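notes to self, project folder thing:

trying the whole complex as one job this time. last attempt i did each chain seperately and stitching them together was a nightmare. two parts in total, labels are on each line so i dont mix them up again. if this works i'll redo the older ones the same way
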Amino acid sequence: MLREEMSAIRLDPASVEVREVRTDDEAGRHGFVGSPTIRISGRDVQPPDGEPAGLTCRVYRLRDGRVSPLPDRAELRETLANAIQGGGE
Amino acid sequence: MAEATATNVGDPAPGLELPDTEGRVHTLPMPGEASATVVIWTCNHCPYALAWHERLVQVARDYAARGVQFMAVNSNDAERYPRDSLGAMRERVDSEDWPFPYLHDESQQVARDWAAQVTPHVYVLDGDLRVRYEGAPDADHMDPGQNAAWLRAALDDLLSGRQPKRAETEPVGCSIKWK
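result (full assembly):
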């Protein structure tokens, strides 16, 4: 989904940096609250609301209220667009 | 640690004796006591389990009058996944309207006995406690309109005295979090 949305706005999908978080310590260091976590220019697509760091499955809430293992596609698209306009952090 | 062995369709269901969120111990019904029994592995933190939850609740309500018993089991390691602790399970049951008991498999032995793999993982037993359906509730966790159709079809077949036409599907969800 991320690479599709990047391609749609002419960003290079090969520029995605994939990091595997293997331990609870690593999760704590990176503020990783579950898989998948997607950060664009350092910003979480759906910033966690007090979720503890840990090796777990990420729960996303879509704009229509449904629970999903993946973020809302429109939210992802907007975050990408904002990052381009802002030039990243 | 006992290794999991496959629970195949047609096999007698392994036993089950687990406490619910209030400490009451539940077992499978005696043979002939329920027209069918549905055992669902689930948990609090998995997006797949959460996405399917309301559909499963509705099936339980719809089939209660037809003598179908439901129970949900959480086998996740609560030490590493605190959202699956007994306290968190109790909070959820207290704040939601669950039509079936939420059982705590702290040792994870029941999950191993049943070879449960993911949340949710659905088993349907006939009145003699043989496994007659195993797998996912329906084809798409993201589509509430699916309405747990695979589970409903398996129950409808069993309650009509037939073996489920679709007896096995691939369970889809988060892996059970083993200790």
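what i see at first glance: The mean pLDDT of chain A is 90.
need to look closer tmrw
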